[in-house]
Amino acid sequence: MTALPPPTTLITVAPTGAESTKVDVPALPTTLDELVETAVRCEAAGAAMIHLHIRDAEHRPTLDLGQLSESVVAIREQTDLVVQLSTGGSVHDPLDDRLRVLDAEPDSCSLTMGTTNFGDDVFMNPWPFVVELYQLTQQQEVVPEFELFDLGHVHALHRLLDTCGSPYGGRVHCDLVMGVPGGMPGTADALVASVHALPAAVTSWSATGIGRTSLAVAFASLSKGGHLRVGMEDTLTLARGVPVKHNEELVSRAAALADLAQRPAMSTIEARDFLRVKARK
Ligand code: KMH
Ligand code: ZN
Predict the structure, then answer these.
(1) pLDDT for 79-120, tens place per residue?
(2) How many angstroms separate the first and last alpha carbons of the chain?
(3) Which pLDDT score is estimated for 121?
(4) Partners of residue 227 on adjacent β-strands
(5) CB distance 137 to ligand 1 below 6 Å
(6) CB of 116 shorter than 6 A to ligand 1
(7) Quick one: pLDDT at residue 2?
(8) Ramachandran angles phi, psi of 104, nearest 5°
(9) What is the CA radius of gyration of the chain?
(10) I want to staple 186 with a disulfide (CB 3.0 to 4.6 A). Which of 37, 151, 159, 178 is the partner?
């Protein structure tokens, strides 16, 4: 029997990332004020969760714990978004710093299920690190979002759940990150193959397509009953030669697609229950 698609769509905004520079992309929100302004506007446009990377005073990626905590608090004060901190950081961040991200007490965190080539770099996620980070999420009551860049990462998720049990909260939410040079392509075929291979314990999944794969992945995700992640971490143009001026544009477009699919954007209240995040306000 075919399962019914979920009635609403969880829209996550990933506004900044760690890869683009402020010099190349001045519209990238890098200061705390810009991040809060972005969060407020994206929530109004339909986002229910924010996937957060932060920058230092020189706009460089940082995992400074004080700044992370301050950002989590500021976004919580000004919005009801589910706050997800990146534990991926930048490809240059030491693994120990990435483990300490949870001390900033986010609602959720990203947790990438394996090492992957990442353009000309390598995004390191050795198995013992994945296990340690997962166990910390369980102890610190943070809901993980499993980032799957490749079919091998899907297989690794089976292994993690089999060996380490359920996540905090009991829901298993994943995100297919598609179109990274070095990972799986941003195509409907790759999305369908990944979804078919997900563990039975998975309760929800979203997908994001890097760069020009963004729309193809969004359409495929909605068609397969998935959720959406959009934002300037992954996509800097709305169309060829049309730069994104504000993350809100990408969220509004995702919300319009979700409406067309008759699965409108999920509210933040719904998302908190959907993901079973801990009440921290
Ligand atoms: N910046 C990438 C190296 C995550 O946030 O967890 C890793 C990344 C994934 O963006
Ligand atoms: Zn990220």
Answers:
(1) 999 999 999 999 999 999 999 999 999 999 999 999 999 999
(2) 41
(3) 98
(4) 206
(5) no
(6) no
(7) 65
(8) -80, 0
(9) 17
(10) 178
In a domain, 48, yes or no: yes
Count of the separate structural domains present in the chain? 1
pTM of the model: 0.98
Can you give the residue range of the structural domain that contains 220?
A: 11-274
Q: Give the residue among 80, 143, 125, 152 at the shortest CA–CA distance from 278.
A: 143
Domain-embedded: residue 280: no
Q: Is 112 in the pocket of ligand 1 (CB under 6 A)?
A: yes
Q: Is 90 in the pocket of ligand 1 (CB under 6 A)?
A: yes
**Is residue 123 situated within a structural domain?**
yes
Ligand 2 centroid from CA 15, angstroms: 9
Query: What is the per-residue pLDDT across 238-280, written as a single tens digit (0 to 9) for each?
Result: 999 999 999 999 999 999 999 999 999 999 999 999 999 999 8
Q: Taking the CB of residue 180, how many other CB atoms lie within 10 A of it?
A: 22
Residue 244, domain CATH? 3.20.20.70
Ligand 1 centre distance from Cα of residue 123 (Å): 8
Q: 164 CA distance to ligand 2 centroid (A)?
A: 24
Q: What is the pLDDT of residues 118-153, one digit of tens each?
A: 999 999 999 999 999 999 999 999 999 999 999 999
Whole-number Å distance, alpha carbon 42 to ligand 2 midpoint, is 17
> Whole-angstrom Cα distance, residue 210 to residue 220?
14
pLDDT at 1 over 80: no
